[in-house]
Fold:
Amino acid sequence: MPSLAVDRTRQILADPAFRELASSRARLRWGLSIATLIMFFGFIALISAAKGALGATIAGDMPLGLVLALGVIVLVVILTGFYVQRSNARFDDVARTLNRRFGQ
Amino acid sequence: MIRYLLAALIAVCPFTASAETAVAGTHGPDRIAMAMFALIVMATFVITWRAAGKTRSKTDFYSAGNAITPLQNGLAIAGDFLSAAAFLGISALVYANGFDGLLYAIGFLTGWPIVLFLMSERMRNLGSYTFADAAAFRLDRTPIRLVAATGSLVVVLFYLIAQMIGAGKVIELLFGVNYLFAVAGVGVLMILYVTVGGMQATTWVQITKAALLLCGGTLLALAVLWHFDFSLGKLFAAASAIHPKGAAILAPGGLFSEPISAISLGMALVFGTAGLPHILMRFFTVKDAAGARKSVFYATSCVAYFCLVIPLLGFGATAILMSDSSYFHVGASGQFNKIVYLIGGPNMAAIHLAHAMGGPVLLGFISAVAFATILAVVAGLTLAGASAVSHDIYGQVIARGQAAETREVWVSKMAALAIGISAVLLAYAFENQNVAFMAGLALSVAASCNFPVLVMAMFWRGTTTRGAVAGGLTGLVASVVLVVLSKTVWVAVFHFSAAIFPYENPALFSMPLAFLFVWLFSATDRSARALREHMAFDAQFVQSEIGAAHATNSLTLVSAAS
Structure:
């Protein structure tokens, strides 16, 4: 029985569909994580580097810093939404199929 | 049924209030606030009583039988996360500092994508009750659980004490009751929710709170916008015309001018969120990893919406309150400091704004919302702390996974009682102490102990028990020591003249140190156990990717691999 389980783990790991699922999910996960961190820490760096410039107003009466902050908030929602949408549309089906194929 | 009760409660709230004023126009704002507060407490009792009937097994108690829907869970996560510190504290920061306050809100929000990408799915696939389940999946149960439980308890206790002291002060101000009575009252309520209704009751208290907070915030923001003809330009112009700092409030100021402090604080906010035990625990209340994922999306949307509303309240409070001396302690000369002399301190900005915008009715409603906010957060923290004691320490370490369900749930209830009582006593003891460091310390420990251990155990094959324990403890000790040596404790509490550690937040140093130690002590681990743990990574990897149907075989897989 235990050796069967080990065999199944090996089979799943060797399965092309699983490998594709794992690698594309890893790309999405780490890519978006790095994008999020660059955005946030870049924003902080920008604030300490170019404080004065962010006080300038654009489009009439909106301060540039506030517009950028707004942009960060909206981007965070877009990034999470994108990840969830991708996972629902692509990865869940593959995971379900793999589970059916290798499940008992 | 609960859903209808909630809907009814939310619908009824404003009407009860207006009826109250109509009947008794002379009643002060306290009466209205009290009535709404009583209504909220009654609603939570109904929730708890109904939940008690549904809470039978261990799974019911810790994770509401995995039967919470993603939308409900998303709201509950937002309810767990948006504390009174976020609602009153960040609006106060915007009131006092303008733009800089908004940066805190963005830091809190940015933790969420990280929670989604790195934590939610794998956690749900690997664990069942607490985040230590996922960390201990292929590592040695006893040491890993002890480190994770210690990290959880430290975070929970410091966060809880900070929340309780804040709660006591706010309730003292809002309802005019004695501080000890306020703290004890909050303690009794949170113990009741957790021990009687478990996760089910806690979840619904959080959903109620999130709905109330989002409605209250929206209402107040609309009132502000309406006051300025829905023109942001007019709002900003009015705010900068009256604020002592003038137009500087619309641009980044001194709060983040020093880059190392800013980055350190940012790391604590972002990675600390991804290591908060009461948040991580919420992923087990949904059916599967897809549900966990969707709930983070809903939670992120709520928090983001809140980040848009909060600055409106802060700038609105600046523009509207600062011109009205009746909201301030005015000196004999008729002069007053527009920030620190606000009655009750700047933290009351949003509450005063409610009075200025909608009179006693809106004041009562927003006060009651602030109260509900406090209750939901402390209940979630207590449950997370109790679970760390009963599931990780008692169930898995002491009883080695053989504890009877009823016995483990009993231990959990006793732990909730003990945590609740200690929190009340500590909040009473620290009433007049400077506790500004506590919330920051909780986040730093979450970022430097819980987060590195969990991420390395889930993502790096090479992690061994020795490495995870060394890294986790290093992160924990480093955070605590650096906070003690920093200005907030060394100078403000111990009254030394200069701080030894020059930055306020240690995360920039303690978190990389924790990762370094996990790596170092894992890479040099040549024991047989380390080899088994490397081999077991395959089974963990498969389950963390495709989960579900595999879950029943997990134990066979791990023991097979060892």
User: Anything to note?
Assistant: DSSP finds 21 helices and no strands in chain B. Residues 214 and 305 of chain B are 8 Å apart (CA to CA). The domain at 2-444 of chain B is CATH 1.20.1730.10 (Sodium/glucose cotransporter).
